[in-house]
Amino acid sequence: MTSRLGLPDLGIGVGLRVPHYRHILDTRPAVDFFEVISENFMVPGGKPRYHLSAVCETYRVVQHGVSLGIGNPTAPADDYLVELRKLVDETKTPWVSDHLCWTGVPGTNLHDLLPLPYTQAVVERVSERAKRVQDRLGVRLLLENTSSYMSHASSTMPEWEFVSAIAEAADIGLLFDVNNVYVSAYNHGFDPSEFVRSVPHERIVQIHLAGHDNLGRYIIDTHGGHVIDPVWELYRETIERTGPVSTLIEWDDRIPEFPVLAAEAERARRVRDEAVAARAALGGRAPARPRMGVPVRGAAVPQHRAWTQGGPREHEGGSP
Amino acid sequence: MSGVDELQGELAELLTRRRAVDTDPTVREQCARIATGNDRLSPAQQIEIYREQFWLRHTSCLLEDFEGLGAVLGQSNWERLIEDYLSAHPPTSFSLRDLGDRMPEFVERSSWLPHHDLCVDMARVEWAYIEVFDAPDAAPLDPAELAAIPESAWERARLRLSPALRLVRVGHPVAAFRRSVRLNEADRSLPEPEPQNLVIYRGQGRDLHHQVLGDAAFALLQALSEGLALVPAAERAMARAPHQADQIEHELSAWFADWAARAWIVGVEI
Question: How would CATH label the architecture of B101-269?
Fold first, then answer.
C-alpha cells in the first residue's frame, strides 16, 4: 500500500452533517471514516460537543476547516489555532485540512473561500504560513484546491502550478477536490486532466467528491446532489495516478437520507477499486487515457442557490 | 502593505457593497482591473457572484438566529435592519455563530423599528438562546457534595449557576410568540405588553427551554448569578421584590430543590 506522507488510507468516508446525527447515533452504520467541519465544534459545550464525542467513540474522524484563511493579509490568528489544536487532540484526527484560499481582511470575515492570485509572492506567503500552522497543530496540514468563479488579472501561473509549488515548498499534503477541479475547469475553460496530471500525486492524502449546480454560464460548487459522471471519470483518472487515497463524499445542500449518501460512497469505492486494479495490472503505472478536454457547457438548472460550507449549522433543537 | 493586501482590501469592499457591482460603470472599471472575466461573464459579473453570496449567506444565517425578530418586523423592515446591521457590524469572528452578537444593542439603537420595544425584547431573548445552546457543560449538583455541607455554612454558601442559563427580564411574552413562529402556528398575533421574568436554559437532554418566574424567585436567581452568598442574595431579592418577601422566606427550600433538579444550580462553594 502506498504511504502518503506516512499517513494511512482510511478508505471511503462521508461528511458528518446535522440531519444525519440521529440516524448515525441510533444505527451506527458502517462508514470507514467521517469528516467533520472543525469550526462547527470549536464551541465550549452543548449538543455540538456531545455529538462529536459520541461519533468519535465509534468512528475514525478527520477534521476539515473552512476558516483558516491561510492566504489572508494577516496570518491565522493565534486563538483560532489554539482552539483548533485542542480539537485535534480530542478527535485524534490523523491530519487537518483547510482550503488554499483567503477568507477575509482585518475587521471583516467574508466567510467564503476566495481564490488567491496565483503569483510567486502568494506562493511564498502561503507556504511560509502553512509550515508554521503545521508545526502548531502537530499533525500534517492538507490544503484543498477550491472551486472558483473569478480569475485574477494579476495571476502569473495556472492553478495547478500554484497548488504544487505551495505543497512542495511547505512540505504539506494536498486535499485534492476532484469536483473543484471540474468546476474551475468549466468556469475558466481549462482541461481538468491537465490539473490532475500536474500536481504532486504523492502528496495527495485525501480526495473530495461532491455534486454541484450547473447554471449554464458557470457552475456553483453547492455540494448539492450526486457526483456527475465526468467527475467520476476524473476521480478514476486521479486514483490511477495516485493509488488508493482516502476519499470523501461531501453533500451539504438538499441533503438526502443517509442511505443515499452511503450509496454514493459505495459508488466511490467501486470506482476506486477499479482504478487501483487497473494501475496494479500495469505494475503501478497509470493506464494511458485521453485527456478529458475543456468541459462542455451543460444544461442549466433554473435556480441560483446560495451555497454553504459544511451543510446546515447545528442549531437549537428540541423545544422551540 | 503588499499588492496582494491591497487587492484583498479592495475586493472585500466590493463584496460587502449593498448593491450589485455590475451596474455602476466606475465599479465595473474597478472590477476589470481585478478580474479577467471570460467569454461568458464580465469581470464585474464574476465578482458579483461572490458579492451576492456574501449577502445571501449572512442574511440567511441571521434569519435562522433571529427568526422571531424577523416575524415581528416582516420582510421589508427585516431586510433593512439586517442590511444596516451587516454594514455597521461586518462579521469578524471565524464562526457564523457569533454573527448576531451585537444584534440586541443594534436593535435597541434602531429606534425607527416598528414595535421597537417588542423587537428589543425579542433580540435579547434570541441571542440568549444562541449563547445557551453551546455554553460550557457543567456536571449536575452532586447530592453527596450537598450533604457534606454543614448547616452553619449555608449562610455564607455561594451557589454556582449553570453556564448554560440566562436571566432575561422582558416587557412582552416574546418566548411564547417565538415558539408559535417556530412551530409555524397560524395565529401569530403580536404579543401585547406584559412584563415577564424569563430563565432561558439548556436542559439535561441538551434541548433549550424557557421558564417564566415570579419577581421574587427571579430576583433571587439574579442575586445568586451576581455571586452573592445565599443570605445576602435572599436579602437583595427581598429588597428588589418587597411585595413577595414572605414568599422568599417560605419557598426558598422548594425553589432550591427545583433549581437543582433542573440543573440551574450546579455547585455550592463555601
Answer: Alpha-Beta Complex (3.90)
